[in-house]
Write a structure and sequence with these properties.
Layout lengths: L43 E2 L23 E2 L2 E2 L12 H6 L33 E14 L2 E7 L4 E7 L5 H9 L5 E10 L7 E12 L11 E2 H6 L1 H4 L3 H22 L4 E2 L5 E2 L11 E4 L2 E5 L4 H11 L1 E9 L12 E10 L3 H22 L1 H6 L5 H4 L8 E3 H10 L12 H8 L6 E4 L12 E2 L2 E5 L1 E6 L4 E9 L3 H10 L8 H8 L5 E7 H9 L20
Parallel strand pairs: 6-8, 10-14, 16-17
Antiparallel strand pairs: 1-2, 3-9, 4-5, 4-7, 5-6, 7-8, 11-13, 12-13, 14-15, 15-22, 17-20, 18-19, 20-21, 21-22
Helix pairs in contact: 5-7, 5-14
The structure holds one RNA strand.
RNA sequence: UCCGCAGUAGCUCAAUGGUAGAGCGGGUGGCUGUUAACCACUAGGUUGGGGGUUCAAGUCCCUCCUGCGGAGCCA
């Protein structure tokens, strides 16, 4: 818990805070804000200061070229500093370590050390907080410091006549993202954003940050992605990451409380799972190995062992996709259920989705508000049932809407948007032509040219967030399918064993986490829905 | 891989073929209630690289590099 032990520079010699010659301290302002979607921006390219960063080479990946560019700008909305005493925030921080006693070897602090999530319990008390300077303003004999501690934001006010010279000097020298310990009397004050304010009487500077790259004005997307590690400090990214975390927790809880067993599928695999997408190849002691693009094939045998199983982890696609709906590395949750038929699968999809959406709305209200998400557009998705539409009917509906396409073709991104726009909640498109779906799917008994497959399309243009199917239990059918798709039969021996030793009906689906999070957050591009996005031409940071 | 757009100050952007500017950030100074504070002054440029047209190119042409958006593919 001792900050001095964890690598942060502590410079007691600077506490008197005389300005050093030749190295003027920057007095930057808040940072980390972002906002406007790239799609609305005007493109400009820019080269990073310091030139190009070194590219990296991995056996299975392209060099991570860095050079910087931006399309579009992101603009920060006026700062709202939320009242962090709200319930979700308190829940979030109930296990926080901020109030733990200091470790031995360090003089104990006189004041209780609290986090911004705990403000309402300490009004009119002398307290200490630790964090980073989010913004800094001066007005004559006043200094306004907006402290950010990872849990919220707090305005701290320093008034010249009320503090010692050292404290005043410290307050004057602060810069954006400098790390500090700050003490004072916590009061309720309507003039302060969030309603609380710290009347400062002590400041300890751990490090004065110089030249923090992310400022309070617009930045291009490329610049921000090159500084993703710092961009995460912004309010908007903070909210998105919290929603992602809550979604992951909710997903695991959903399955764990319904008697599913977690089966971690392997990342390194000997062959393509579905034989379609391009895979990242690496060297496995002289043999080629591939990063997994799906855990599904490994789940089917596990379903025979444990009945109801799921996996949840990263998956990899080496397609050179350049769209807002694609990442090279993304997270997917995949349940697989023995004895579940197609109709049951549809019920599982809608029950799962509606449950997770409800959870996000319940527990992430503060984050959704910060993202200015129109939550009324999510309400319908909390209730079942979801509409079902046969693939053939979907094609007819699209044609009626003026879309040019023929029966037998798959839907493009725009088609999905049009189709989803016909409904107020996710729509389940069923029974696709078998030709355009994966080899392992069960044919429709009424029309063998159709597969018992479902795609769940999210509203508002977020597209396919779930793809699922009933799996074929017929060994001969699968062997023909593998041959038809040009896949190596021997690579699937173990998979086909599921059909040799006690074949059983089973179904499952996969949901892309980033697409789900993007939909919840209302963000236009998947790259903001994952902490460190991996995209074509981007492997840094 | 294909189609389209773009590259100008640290960042975000201006600039009819005719003296490269602004805001933010940085520096100096001012202000007792700021909310991306404000005001004054100030420093800051090989206009992505190369070639060409022209009296004259950030601007027009060719080419390369880089990125963004989309298509395909998919979650």
């Amino acid at each position: 818990m001792c900050i001095r032990r964890v690598g942060v520079q502590f410079r007691p010699a600077r506490l008197p805070l005389k300005k050093r010659e030749g190295t003027p301290f920057a007095l930057e302002s808040p940072g980390g804000s972002v906002g406007r979607p790239a799609s609305a921006g005007r493109g400009r390219t820019r080269r990073m200061a310091g030139g190009e960063l070194a590219s990296r080479r991995l056996p299975f990946a392209r060099a991570g070229r860095e050079a910087a560019v931006s399309t579009g700008t992101v603009r920060l909305k006026p700062t709202h500093i939320a009242n962090t005493s709200s319930l979700p925030s308190m829940l979030r921080n109930s296990g926080d370590l901020g109030t733990m006693p200091p470790s031995s070897g360090r003089p104990p602090m006189k004041d209780p050390v609290i986090t911004i999530s705990q403000l309402s319990d300490h009004v009119e008390e002398q307290v200490t907080l630790r964090g980073w300077v989010y913004n800094w303003r001066k007005k004559g004999k006043l200094r306004f410091i907006i402290l950010r501690d990872g849990f919220g934001y707090l305005q701290c006010v320093v008034f010249r006549p009320n503090v010692d010279d050292e404290v005043w000097e410290a307050a004057t020298q602060l810069t954006q993202e400098s790390s500090i310990e700050i003490s004072g009397k916590l009061i309720a004050d309507e003039r302060a954003p969030g309603g609380f304010e710290l009347q400062v009487n002590q400041i300890k500077i751990l490090q004065i940050t110089e030249d923090y790259p992310i400022g309070k004005k617009d930045h291009g997307v490329d610049f921000l992605l090159n500084h993703r590690h710092l961009w995460l400090r912004s309010k908007r990214q903070h909210a998105i990451m919290h929603i992602r975390s809550e979604a992951e927790f909710g997903i695991r809880e959903y399955f764990q409380t319904r008697n599913f067993t977690l089966i971690d599928s392997p990342i390194l695999t000997p062959a393509a799972c579905e034989g379609t997408s391009t895979l990242f190849e690496t060297d496995y002691f002289g043999e080629p190995a591939y990063l997994s693009q799906s855990g599904q094939l490994y789940l089917e045998p596990a379903a025979a062992a444990l009945g109801k199983v799921y996996c949840f982890g990263p998956t990899f696609r080496a397609e050179k996709s350049k769209t807002r709906r694609h990442l090279m590395e993304f997270w997917m949750v995949e349940p697989e259920v023995a004895w579940l038929r197609f109709e049951g699968l549809l019920e599982l999809c809608e029950d799962f989705l509606s449950t997770i959406v409800s959870r996000i709305l319940d527990r992430c209200a503060v984050d959704l508000e910060r993202l200015e998400r129109d939550v009324s557009k999510l309400d319908a998705a909390t209730s079942k049932p979801y509409p079902r539409i046969d693939y053939g009917d979907a094609v007819q509906r699209l044609k009626a809407e003026g879309v040019e396409m023929e029966f037998g073709e798959d839907f493009g991104g725009d088609d999905e948007t049009v189709l989803a726009g016909l409904f107020d909640r996710p729509v389940m498109v069923t029974r696709y032509p078998a030709d355009i779906k994966a080899f392992y799917m069960e044919p429709d008994s009424e029309d063998p040219t159709r597969a018992l497959a479902v795609d769940v399309l999210a509203p508002e243009g977020y597209g396919e967030i779930i793809g699922g199917s009933e799996r074929s239990a017929d060994l001969e059918h699968l062997e023909r399918q593998i041959a038809t798709h040009g896949l190596p039969r021997e690579a699937f021996d173990w998979y086909l064993d599921v059909r040799k030793y006690g074949a059983f009906p089973h179904s499952g689906f996969g949901m892309g986490l980033e697409r789900f999070v993007s939909w919840m957050c209302g963000i236009p591009h998947l790259r903001e829905a994952i902490p460190y996005p991996r995209m074509i031409n981007r492997l840094y940071p």
